[in-house]
């Protein structure tokens, strides 16, 4: 049996850090994208007997190959500690103990001290548990574990700092979320919950938890009381657009967005003024601008483009905007291509690039409007809290790139060539001519003007930063465990303790 241990100090009081970990969504927000995909968090969080269902990345696969990993929380061995053990997965054994303790802060500005987090894992590998496990020495997993826990540390610091930013806009809110099971929705709910907000989820199936509310947009069924309960309503729902644009496919794409948004907006309008939510934050997409805008810089004031998706986004935003006549703030989040190994375009392309078959799509001259998963999550949370954000908001990174540049950057980070361009015929064969033109080879130079005006600072403003984070590629020369943690304003930084092997 092998043992791995790491200890780090974060510049926040122990009570703050421990409370954050005990909230729903903490595992989702804490876990680096390259390390694990969270399928179900333990419920209640950290309670003995509660199980977490995950898909853990096979070492060296950059998240392309993931295998089931289920753990169960056990009785903590000591106060200010939680522990988990393996239920099912590629390991033979896995015992993880997570301990919080107060340490003296280096300044008098923090009388409550800082928090040291110590993670200790005892594990053994099951032969055949994952590809290559038969030849795997247990000690060889240490770099993988170290990268995962260093990633957790980085994410924890980022989350606590951003929570403080959001808190500057006001106290905890009650938030009703539709479309919470998707790639972005899962992260948005987790961020709002760990920031201390109360979240209820609109779902189409039978509710199993106290924070779930059933609705059926197809039948026009929605509990008015659930909407009246909320300070803010967030809607991220809609059928996948990654399909052929047949008559039936188009109907499903359009109706799933327009009908559900209309139901939410009408329900908000039917409530007495004193019971209406203060804001309605609704998804949209950069498809609003059409698929062929060449070098035109597209701010939120740019005209709608041509094509099916542009028509869908216009109808979608028009329904969301109905709440404005009732005095409710409306935000339509025009989302770009989300860069994440957990799903979307990058996850589809990554296997080809790892095999050395990646390259530009079409001519490669098309502008690619993209955003990291962390930033699109933060943008939704900011839209919930910031009363100055309203109307359409371009949720794209400022570093818009051409398709050829994207291919070269991704291939370079993976140390692979990018010499095999994908002809436009290939996506046409899969998606059909119309969908391929609007999805695979769309040309949109979108600018995040509204976010810039609001002073939003991107977690990943460059493509290199976003890809490094989701692939687990370190871009600095020193491990973060040897870097000073960033302290809150008014406090001095503190050195992290070096991980123990």
What does this structure look like?
Residues 480-501 have a biased composition (Low complexity). Residues 423-469 form the DUF1731 domain. Belongs to the NAD(P)-dependent epimerase/dehydratase family. SDR39U1 subfamily. Residues 475-501 are annotated as: Disordered. It comes from Brevibacterium rongguiense. With 501 residues, the protein is an alpha/beta fold. It folds into 2 domains: 2-165, 2-Layer Sandwich (Alpha-D-Glucose-1,6-Bisphosphate, Chain A, domain 4), CATH 3.30.530.20; 173-471, NAD(P)-binding Rossmann-like Domain (Rossmann fold), CATH 3.40.50.720. The chain contains 14 helices and 22 strands. It has helices at 14-21, 26-30, 142-167, 183-194, 224-229, 247-270, 308-320, 344-354, 373-385, 403-413, 425-431, 433-439, 449-453, 463-471, and strands spanning 2-10, 36-40, 51-57, 66-74, 81-88, 91-103, 114-125, 174-178, 198-203, 212-214, 232-235, 279-285, 292-298, 329-335, 337-339, 367-368, 370-372, 391-395, 401-402, 443-446, 484-485, 494-495. The strands form 6 sheets. It has a 7-stranded antiparallel sheet with strand order 1-7-6-5-4-3-2. The protein has a 7-stranded parallel sheet with strand order 10-9-8-11-12-14-18, with helices on both faces. α4 packs across α9, α10 packs across α14 (463-471) and α11 packs across α12 (433-439). The protein is globular, with a radius of gyration of 23 Å. Mean pLDDT is 91; it is low at 477-501.
